[in-house]
């Protein structure tokens, strides 16, 4: 009789590694460093299915081995990508110091996704780092990126988190883990800055061509595809930042290496969602000057895009003056683009189908009231109703204006309410709840709170069955967690 074999692990993988086919200027070939004791901690079944993978193939020890890099998926060609980045304003050469790109998976529908192991061991770009990641921050990235996806916000995703059975040494020893990140690509503003800083115009051309083909195929045949690339990236970032502001998301470390040209949110380090509305909210323990505060994000995005435009200058146009004029015109469009997205977002949050010139002022006045009273951003928007009683005279006056504004559009309340509920989440990953779930997972080996949180955050616009601690603002006196960058 034939011995029954465990399901082999093609599992539906279909790698086609276009970035690995670029020349050595762009990457180093490097394999993940095997770990002592791979164990699958979370696995994202819906994402596996979306990718055309067979979830049943990811149950045994082979899966844990693959999700830590002990085994390599068939067809993968592991590389560490070269990039630079302005970190808090200063340009540095970086590269994948602890992430290894396994390759690009093609889904049955023809979409292409990077499959990357984060925390997979040292690479030639590791500098003094160990190439590793601790389980807490990897579970945090898994949770928040999946929450962002469910909120309808472009983001990288997480297919799995697997523990390594090895400690990583930070302020104290912590259990190590690897996250499998799925992204439209990992090409960043900083990828272009790397080659611009080297003065490698040929590499810039190759990279621009690759990026346009991959993310903006409609622009390939256009008169100036590089200008097209710049304009498309500006448009996607202006839309992305409006999305972040819609749900109160603070990225926390918007360095140019953490700005993906695909327009996806990437690199969940010291990120968090605001509870009380405060444009100055900062959660990163190293952001002393509030460079990446909640309300600074549009400005910082524009600053990063200026660095992108600078990197593109040598390939934008053969005449320097023309290149500069084109870059400046594109950059000047950011503010208008962002304002358009933001105003449209605010109108939806306030249930407005029509446009009136005073809408921005109406919105700003409620935001100012929220700031002054430290009102909870999510809770206030989700619970806005005309004609509800409030003790607060300022709020009542505002509510009266809003009610009159609603009366000047034809849509009845049920339609208004539906629009609002589709743009104002009922639940977000509130910091105190996230920290509690991560503490249970990492210190008590109890994954139940994390798993129920993942379920609750998968349908963020629906309050039914959601725990009250997620629906309500944190109890008074809950300390605001600050997240360390050294994740
Ligand atoms: P991040 O703050 O995660 O965006 O990382 C910034 C840079 O530091 C990237 O080039 C990372 O690859 C690198 N890096 C972060 N942590 C480590 C680590 N533990 N070992 C090696 N490189 C790291
Ligand atoms: Mg990064």
Tell me the overall shape.
globular
* Mean pLDDT metric: 95
Bound molecules: adenosine monophosphate, magnesium ion
Poorly predicted parts? none
The run of helices and strands is HEEHHEEEEEEHEEHHHEEHHHHHHHHH
Helices, by number, come to 16
Percent helix: 40-55%
| N- to C-terminal distance | 51 Å
Summarize the main sheet.
Answer: 6 strands, antiparallel
Estimate the strand proportion: 5-15%
Radius of gyration: 23 Å
Tally of strands: 12
Classify the secondary structure makeup into a structural class: alpha+beta
Q: In a nutshell, what does this entry contain?
A:
The chain has 487 residues and is α+β, with helices and mostly antiparallel strands. It is built from 16 helices and 12 strands.
Model description:
- The chain is an alpha+beta fold.
- The chain has 16 helices and twelve strands.
- Helix 7 runs parallel beside helix 9.
- The model has no long low-confidence stretch (mean pLDDT 95).
- It is globular.
- Strands 2, 6, 7, 8, 9 and 10 form a six-stranded antiparallel β-sheet that branches. It has a two-stranded antiparallel ribbon with strand order 1-3.
- Bound molecules: adenosine monophosphate (AMP) and magnesium ion (MG).
- Adenosine monophosphate binds next to loops.
